[in-house]
Structures are given as C-alpha cells and as structure tokens.
Specification:
It catalyses: DNA(n) + a 2'-deoxyribonucleoside 5'-triphosphate = DNA(n+1) + diphosphate. This protein has about 900 residues and is α/β, with parallel strands linked by helices. Helix content is about 50%, strand content about 10%. Strands 3-2-1-4-5-6 form a six-stranded mixed β-sheet, with helices on both faces. Strands 7-10-9-8 form a four-stranded mixed β-sheet, with helices on both faces. Strands 21-22-18-23 form a four-stranded antiparallel β-sheet.
DNA sequence: TCTGTCACG
DNA sequence: ACGTACGTGACAGAC
C-alpha cells in the first residue's frame, strides 16, 4: 500500500555505469572479466540505499541504439565514441548483480533510461510519493519538483550533489522547467545536440534570465545585438530541435506499476554469492556477509559448469581421445569473414569437467587421427556453433564434418531471426547465462586483430566451447516449446550441409568472357564520360554523388526533386524526373548503369574466380534474413543482373564446369502470390491459380473491371504493382510512389483489389491483429519473427511492424518451400545416383549443371520436386529452362 | 566507418 | 498528422 512515506530511488543505469567505468581504475577478476564499472556502481548503490532507505528501487537502462529521438534527428548521439568492450562486457555482470540485490531493472526498446525514469517519477508524484533520481547527467534536473530531487554524481560516482528546485534556483537562477531551454541554447556535445554555436552556459543563462524560454528568445530576437543575434537567427531550428531532444518523455508506455519496483532488501546469501563471484571481497566484508552461505541454486549451477582447461599439443592426446566418447560440444575457431578462405585457429572440445583445446595446426598430425575420425563420425553427435562455417573450414583440411546434431547459432536465429548479434557472447547475454569474454576483447577488431598468447587463447576457446554446451539445453527446450522442432531438425540443420556442398562445388565463370565484356563496358564508359564533360562544360567526378549534386543543382540549375540528409539526392528516380530538363541526365543514368556493371560485376566477380579451378564459391548465410531467406556473400550471386540486357550479358560467363554439360535453371512461378492465395484462402485468388491464369492480367481485369482482351500493357503493369504492394504490406502512399500516381488513385486501386479479393483483405486484417496480440507472426513451417514494435505508440515504428506482419508469413513461407525443395533435390540426386549438381539458389530459383544424358530426367525431376515440396491449396508451378550458360537458361 | 546508390528476388 | 513499399550485398566516395 502506498503512503506518503514511500520513497522511490530511480537510477539511470547507463549513465552511472559509464561514469563509474571512467572514474574507477581498471580492475579485472581472475577469469579476465573487467569489473571496475560494476564495483563503482555498487559503491554508489550501497551509499544511496543506506542514506535514502527507499521503499522502491528501480534501475533503468537504455535499450538498443535507435530511439524515437533519432526519428526527428538522425544524428542524435552521433559522433559518440563506441562503448569500449571493456565496458559493454560489464552490463551483463551488473544486471546479474542487481538481480542478486533483488532490485528491479527496466528497459524498453525505443526509449532511453531518462524517459523511463521521468515516467516513473511522474507516477510517483501522482501517487503522493517522493522520488530520488540518480544520474550523472544534468538533463535530469528538469524532473526536479518538491517531491522529486535529483542526485548528480561528481568526480567519481559515490559523491553526489543533491538538487531540489530551490538548489537549481540558487545555482542557475532557473526553474527546473528551464533546464531544457538551457540545453536548447547551449547544446550538448556528448549527445551531439547542436544548440546555438557560440552560446555556452554563461550566454545561455543570460538569455534565459532575460527571456525565460527558447521560444521567447526567438520571438524577441530583435532585442539581441551583434554576432550573438546572427548566430541565433541562423540556428533557430537547431535551438528548437535541441530543446525538444533534451526534453525527457514522461509518457513511456510501461507495463509496470510502482508496486513492481518495491524493494524489501536483499537476501544476504544470494548477494554474498554474487559479490564473491565478482571477487568484491571488500564489499562482502563491509556488508558483514562473510558468514552468509552462498550455496544458492545459481551458484551450484555455476560450479557444475566449471571445467579444467586441458591444452593438447605435443601432449595430452590420450586424455583427449578418452574423453571424445562423452564430448558434449565442439568449437572450431577460424579467422576471416569468408570461410572459403578462412584459416583454422584452434579447436576446443568440452567433455564433463574437462575442456580440451587444440591448436589448429595439430589437427593434421598423426596423433590427431582419433580426433579426425570423431569429427567425421556421423554417430558421434556434436553440438556446435555455426556448423556451416565449421564444415567449410574443416573441409579445407580434408575433414568431412559429420554428426553435427545441434547448432546453437542456427537455433538462436530461429528463436529470434532479427537479432543482429549472433556472437556467442550475445547469445549468453540474451538467454540469461553468465558471460564470457567477447571475441573483440580477446582478438581486437579490424586492423588491430591479433591472436593472444597460447594460454589466453586456450582459455578463451575453452570458455566458448563451454558456452555452447550451456546454451544447448536452453535453446533446444525453447525450440521444442514453440513447436519449431521440425523446422530446426528436419529443415534448417540438414540444409546447412546442403548449402556447404553447393558452395564447395562452386560455379564455373569464364574469366575471358568477363574480361571481354569489361573491355566493351569500359569503352562505353569512356565515351559517355567524355560526352558528360562536354555537356557540362567542365570535368568532375561523376561517381561522386556530392560532386554530381553540385553540378546538376547548382551549376546547371536543375530543379531539386528530393534531398538526402547530407545533400541533394541524385538517385535514378530523381534523374528520371530530370531527364527532360537536360541532355546530361540521360548520359549520367547510362554512366551509372555501366559503372555499376563494371565495378561490381566485372571487376568484383573477376576477383572471386579461383585461378586454379576457374570457379566462384559463394557463401550462403543462413542466419541473416529476418524472413528466413538465405543471403549470399563473397560474392553475392543472388543479384547478378537480368532486368537490363546490357547487364544480363554477364550471365553468359556462368557456364557448366564440364564439357558437354548444360545449365538448367528452374524457378517458381509467382510463388509469393500462390502462398498468399493459400494462407488467405481467398477463393478468387485460388481459382486464378487453379486455372493457371496470368495473375497480373487477371488482377487488371478485376481491378479495372474489363474483359481480358481489353487489358492493355499499362493496365497490366499497374496491376502487377498492386500485386507487389499486396505482398509487401500495402499502403496507398507506397503504391502511389511506385506508380507515380496520386495517393487517392492508389487508395482506389487498393480498395478495388480488396473488393475483388475479400479473403486477402481478411488475411491482412487478421494477421496484423494476431501479431498485435501475440507479438510475433509465423510461416507455414512455424518459422517466427518477433515484432516488438507492433503496438508502439510511434506511428512509423508501428506501421513498419504492421507491414512486416503482412509480408513475413508470405516471403517466409516461400523461403520455407524452396528450402524444402533443396533438401528433397539433394536427396533425389543421391538416391538416383545422378551426376547433376545443384549449384545456386536465388530465392525462387535453383540452378543446376547437368550432363547431357541426364537432361531429360532432370527436366522432369526438378520441377516435380519443386512443385511438391509443400502441399498448398493451389498448385505450385516451377518452370525449367536449359542453356549452355546461365544467360541462355532463361 | 558511414552514406548513397543500385543490383537481385 | 504521420511519411515507407518487403528482403538482401557490394561498391565508390567522403569522412
């Protein structure tokens, strides 16, 4: 029950931990984790708890990188130094420690800690409670009232300065509400809030004492003189925006009430355990916790996962071989992004209380024979991290990985495909497990990448193998609970091996054909460059969007159609609008096209051809796309030109690897719209596909209300755009942009479409409703995508999530289907003993190389497997074509 | 390292 | 009133 004695302490977690990090000298625990910031935070916390004796305590954290503040001002907090890894690795430690304190912690995507604190302080006040805000950031002073005081840390973290409205009055001569005006005028370099140049604290205070608010300063600008006036006049918008950015948002939609942050003190045993783990011995003493028993459940789990690091190199092989039978997880560490060029660093294998680490070079030694056969043994089941990459690395050492029954990276991807950080460190944190050192902390990043000493390396590899072991039960249980076992065990995991096989096979690309094409492109580029210079009357770098913008819009005076945040936009859409104004525009469009082909496709692909084999080996990433699609890298073979004839020529260089063979390509016809017909159950759409009608023409007939023979090219084009729009999660605005029509006309199209296909409309409404209720959407194979922003109060974030809710089940199910087809195709080739090889996947297309004598069989087999991969209420159609290269196979 | 642009489905 | 179509990767230029 609340009464006026209730007192809240609200702590700005991010602010205090980073102050502590810079204030306290470096400190590491014996396992190498940095702990100085956690120690500083704890010192501050204990002091506040002691002095304030609060009834409620909350620590708020910033969540994610992008907040609503970035929407109005994308540079918000820009230019800020990256959080050093020594600090970021302390966040999980702090969060764990706060749990031991039984202190609540909140964070909410899209908001900063300030906003959560501001909201809680408001709630406290409304309920007649008092609140103490603790932060290192003076912005917080705006929250001060008779009931809310603010403690700002000074030099260090344990010394604080207490601010009340009267204290602020004495110190600055301002009211708390004017703090944001102060910021608006002076800015804040650390958050990249501009303010007005030349206005620091002194000038800002003088202005506010005279005029009171930013708005009043601007309204009375004529009373200000000289340079100051000029500065303010030219930065009025900056001042207004800066004030807005500095304003704490006090209406955060929190799912919590004040009661949820009640604090009744900590459990001595739990806290003692947590502090001992961090090796804060002095604090244990100071709090008289020495006697407290710390054998909590968490602690024993921790103890159970302890292991001895056994370094295997010239010695230790017998011990390793003895442990292989009970091995639980294996880690293969390698360097570089491209696993086809990766170098093995080392292996670690965890088995019971032992973790063996082996330098990669020893894998080839005679002593490693048992290890090699264990890696290749399908019966020896292995938990790994990124088995696909491991398979490629080992393959380059002549080892064929087998028995990979659980991949924690793949499992984590399926549980949350939008999570950008797939590192083991990130997985541990997200699944609430004790952390290990980050790769970045051990190896460094970019140019600073280097391997640490053998001892440190062994420790790290062991910690990673142990982390894999600890993650597995958690992840497998979650998959099971969400009904994703089939997707994981029957689809994604087996697919990883199929992908590795395709990549290792590679596709032959004719160097000479590319070079000849490149010579021709270059000739045209030179010609056009000359014509552009002539047309402009001077020379400049056409490839520089900035210089091009200057030339077009300043020197040639063409109308500005669109701006980017850094200047004029010069993209193709803009240039097409400018075409009638100046002959140079057409030349630039053609230049752009050729330059793209030359740099990305001629030069880029040439660099990727292996001279020994004449092949290109792409790498399919299975854990990138939020919808479940694959992505292709080093090089990307999923975006080879086809739409324009000039670029399409590139495909002529993609040929079979053996004489007398052919390229066979098969693509799904309208797979996404067929999936939509199935999921929505719309009768009209289903019927169209059952009758195998041209879907865009059919749509045109219905939307425009005309018979088939009156559908002209333009109508069909517009109908096609409507169909695309439907799949993307349509909005009238988006469609109007695409078709260059008014928003009203686009809205009419959509309405007419929905009238024709009411089942589709029902689906769109339902899927969004379901997403709002559940927080996620799923595909037919139970692939899921979380949509945390589907109920967000911000229109943009919410709308984006709604379109995603409509699109993901469609695009994702199409991805499910082709992945199933790939598995089935792989099996079919093996079963029938065919020599034909599956080489590429391009979202709705599979590319094979086929010996002549198998051609007839493959022409029947491939479309059959593809169209029966998953049973839908409408037929799935796959169309095959054959040629002597990828261009011909169209 | 980030931004703008453009290649694909 | 809000202001993007969904999903990717690679390159050049500018910092």
């Amino acid at each position: 029950m609340s009464n006026e004695l209730d007192k809240l302490v609200l702590i700005d977690g991010n602010s205090i931990i980073s102050r502590a990090f810079y204030a306290i000298p470096p400190l590491t625990s014996s396992n190498g984790l940095h702990t100085n910031a956690v120690l500083g935070f704890t010192t501050m916390l204990l002091k506040v708890l002691e002095e304030e004796k609060p009834s409620h305590v909350l620590v708020a954290f910033d969540a994610g990188k992008v907040t609503f503040r970035h929407e109005g001002y994308s540079e918000y907090k820009g230019g800020r130094q990256k959080t050093p890894p020594e600090l970021s690795e302390q966040f999980p430690l702090l969060k764990e420690l706060l749990q031991a304190f039984s202190i609540s912690q909140f964070e909410l995507a899209g908001y900063e800690a300030d906003d959560i604190i501001g909201t809680m302080a408001r709630l406290a006040e409304e309920q007649g409670k008092t609140a103490i805000v603790v932060s290192g950031d003076k912005d917080m002073l705006q929250l001060t009232t008779d009931q809310v005081s603010v403690l700002i840390t000074r030099k260090g973290v344990s010394e604080v300065e207490r601010y009340t409205p009267s204290a602020i009055g004495e110190k600055y001569g301002l009211t708390p509400a004017q703090i944001i005006d102060l910021k608006g005028l002076m800015g804040d370099a650390s958050d990249n809030i501009p303010g007005v140049p030349g206005v620091g604290e002194k000038t800002a205070l003088k202005l506010l004492h005279e005029f009171g608010t930013v708005e009043n300063v601007l309204a009375n600008i004529e009373e200000i003189k000289g340079k100051l006036r000029e500065n303010i006049e030219s930065h009025m918008d900056d001042a207004r925006m800066s004030k807005q950015l500095a304003t704490i948002f006090r209406e955060v939609p929190l799912d919590y009430s004040l009661d949820d942050v009640t604090w009744k003190g900590y459990d001595s045993a739990v806290l003692a355990g947590a502090l001992r783990k961090l090796e804060f011995k002095n604090l244990v003493e100071r709090l008289n916790l020495s006697g407290a028993n710390d054998a909590t459940e968490a602690e024993s789990a921790e103890a159970a996962s302890q292991y001895e690091v056994v370094r295997v190199d010239t010695v230790g092989w017998e011990r390793l071989n003895g442990a292989l039978a009970t091995a639980e997880a294996v880690l293969v560490e390698s360097s570089g992004d491209n696993p086809h060029h990766g170098e093995g660093i080392g292996l670690s294998i965890v088995s019971g209380s032992e973790c063996f680490t082996i330098p990669y070079a020893y894998l080839a030694s005679p002593e490693a024979a048992s290890l090699r056969s264990w890696l290749e043994n399908a019966e020896a089941s292995k938990t790994c991290y990124d088995a696909h990459r491991v398979e490629l690395i080992l393959a380059s050492s002549g080892i064929a990985l087998s028995g990979q029954t659980f991949d924690v990276q793949l499992a984590a991807y399926l549980l949350d495909p939008t999570e950008a950080d797939p590192s083991l460190q990130g997985l541990l944190q997200r699944h609430g497990l004790p952390p290990i050192l980050s790769d970045e902390a051990v190896y460094g990043k970019g140019a600073k990448y280097r391997l640490p000493g053998d001892g440190e390396l062994a420790k790290h590899l062991a910690a990673k193998a142990d982390a894999i072991r600890r993650l597995k039960p958690l992840l497998s249980e979650k998959l099971e609970k969400l009904g994703m076992n089939e997707l994981f065990y029957e689809l994604e995991q087996p697919l990883s091996g199929v992908l590795a096989k395709m990549e290792m096979q590679g596709i032959t690309v004719q160097t000479e054909a590319l070079q000849d094409l490149g010579t021709e492109f270059q000739r045209r580029i030179d010609e056009i460059t000359k014509a552009v210079y002539e047309s402009a009357g001077f020379e400049f770098n056409i490839g520089s969007p900035r210089q091009l913008g200057e030339v077009l819009f300043e020197r040639l005076g063409l109308p500005v159609v669109k701006k980017t945040k850094t200047g004029y936009s010069t993209d193709a859409e803009v240039l097409e609008k400018l075409e009638p104004h100046h002959e140079i525009v057409r030349l630039i469009l053609h230049y752009r096209q050729l330059a793209k082909l030359q740099s990305t496709y001629i030069e880029g692909l040439l660099k990727e051809i292996r001279p020994e084999t004449g092949k290109i080996h792409t790498f399919y990433k299975q854990t990138i796309a939020a919808t479940g699609r694959l992505s292709s890298q080093f090089p990307n073979l999923q975006n080879i030109p086809i739409r324009m004839e000039e670029g399409r020529q590139i495909r002529k260089a993609f040929v079979p690897s053996e004489p007398g063979w052919v390229i066979l390509a098969a693509d799904y016809s309208q797979i996404e719209l067929r999936v939509l017909a199935h999921i929505s159950g719309d009768d009209g759409l289903k019927e169209a596909f059952l009758k195998d009608m041209d879907i865009h023409t059919k749509t045109a007939m219905d939307v425009f209300g005309v018979p088939a023979d009156q559908v002209d090219g333009n109508m069909r084009r517009q109908a096609k755009a409507v169909n695309f729009g439907i799949v993307y999660g349509i909005s009238d605005w988006g469609l109007s942009q695409n078709l260059n029509i008014t928003r009203g006309e686009a809205a009419d199209f959509i309405e007419q479409y929905y009238r024709t296909f009411p089942g589709v409309k029902r689906y769109m409404v339902t899927v969004v409703e379901e997403a709002k209720k559940n927080g996620y959407v799923t595909t037919m194979m139970q692939r899921r995508r979380l949509l945390p922003e589907i109920n967000h109060s911000n229109f943009n974030l919410r709308s984006f999530a709604e379109r995603t809710a409509m699109n993901t089940p469609i695009q994702g199910t199409a991805a499910d289907i082709i992945k199933l087809a790939m598995l089935r195709m792989n099996e079919a080739l093996l079963e029938r003993g065919l020599r034909s090889r599956m080489l590429l996947q391009v979202h709705d297309e599979l590319v094979f190389e086929v010996p002549q004598e198998e051609l007839e069989a493959m022409k029947a087999l491939v479309p059959d497997v593809m169209s029966t991969a998953l049973k839908l209420d409408v037929p799935l159609l796959a169309e095959v074509s054959v040629g002597s290269n990828w261009y011909e196979a169209k």
